[in-house]
Specification:
single chain; Quinone Oxidoreductase, Chain A, domain 1; Rossmann fold; six-stranded parallel β-sheet
């Protein structure tokens, strides 16, 4: 089979296209013929060595993807063979991710993908959708699970709503009944955020606090934050008492200046989150709820749904990494096989 690998960390040039033997699933595992592989910032960060320590002599990257189960290991229902699935955390603690024609994962990390949902949708779930779920379910006064009505009466602010996680925050929050506000930097990103389903889109280069208060005079319940150092003053200006700032990134790397007094007065919950250490119960709940949202058709992708797709063939995976690292707007996908 064809696979992308790297043996040392570095820039995208360390990625190589190679031939490898077909892997066999072990007990409790399934082998998936990968159709589409999704690329996330954590994939290039792991490859570069910026945020993760390389654990294996040779690594096939990418956590997310979608395809068809073609073999199962001992203890897995044989009826799963031929099942369409989306994959999550494929390369977490394992040397073989989804940037290959076939990959092997624990059976519970291959989630059934409804026939009406494309492989593009499946490959765009994983890290973005599960992170969005976590961001929306850690509030003191909020739900621990998402379903229609779970966020009725709540106001959610998706910072940077044109990104993959922000896009999933908008879609999941709206599916769960929240009023959704997002901040963007210009007209094109505003169009994408509105297409994703945001009720109110505000340009953060103007007076975003006034704009947010204009549609949420009592304040915001949950902020899904992608750039804490840059956005914290705005978050605190619009957060309601006992509100939650769910932090999944600090894009731009600005230092965080924490106004302790202001946070004390607000009883702010400042929740940092990453999937790898969220715990099995939180991850399992997120998978179940995201799967339900997919079945309901609540997580579409594509430019018409606010998330443009940028496609690369397997032999150009290095270019896909460069696109994500450069901040490409939309979801970067690698086409692996066609079935």
């Amino acid at each position: 089979m064809k696979a992308i690998i790297y043996r040392e960390t570095g820039d995208a040039g360390v990625l190589q296209l190679v031939d490898r033997d077909l892997p066999a699933p072990g007990p409790g595992e399934v082998r998936v013929r990968v159709a589409v592989s999704g690329v996330n910032p954590t994939d290039w960060q792991a490859r570069s060595g910026v945020a993760h320590r390389k654990q294996f002599p040779e690594v096939t990257p990418h956590l997310d993807g979608a395809g068809v189960i073609d073999a199962v290991g001992a203890g897995v229902d044989p009826a799963r063979t031929g099942e369409r699935v989306w994959l999550l955390l494929a390369a977490a603690g394992r040397p073989t991710g989804t940037a290959a024609e076939f990959t092997v994962v624990p059976a519970d990390q291959a989630v059934p993908l409804p026939g009406e949902a494309s492989f593009d949708v499946g490959a765009s779930l994983g890290v973005p959708a599960l992170t969005a779920h976590r961001a929306l379910t850690v509030a003191e006064d909020g739900p621990r699970r998402l379903h229609p009505g779970a966020l009725d009466g709540k106001v959610v602010l998706a910072a940077g709503g044109a990104g993959a996680v922000g896009h999933a925050v908008i879609q999941l929050a709206r599916w769960a009944g929240a009023t959704v506000i997002t901040t963007v930097s210009g007209p094109e990103k505003a169009r994408l955020a509105a297409a994703a389903g945001a009720h109110h889109v505000i340009n953060y280069k103007g007076d975003p606090a006034a704009g947010i208060h204009g549609v949420a005079p009592d304040g915001v319940d949950i902020v899904a934050e992608v750039a804490l150092g840059e956005n914290l003053p705005l978050d605190l200006a619009v957060l309601r008492p006992r509100g939650t700032i769910s932090v999944y990134a600090n894009d731009g790397g600005a230092p965080v200046d924490l106004n302790v007094g202001r946070n004390l007065v607000l009883n702010t919950r400042l929740q940092f989150l990453v999937l790898f250490t969220a715990g099995p119960q939180a991850r399992a709940a997120a998978v179940e709820d995201v799967a339900a949202a997919v079945r309901a058709g609540a997580l579409p992708v594509g430019a018409e749904h606010g998330l443009p797709l940028l496609r690369f063939p397997l032999d150009r995976t290095a270019d896909a990494h460069r696109a994500v690292q450069a901040g490409a707007v939309g979801k970067v996908l690698v086409d692996v096989t066609c079935g």
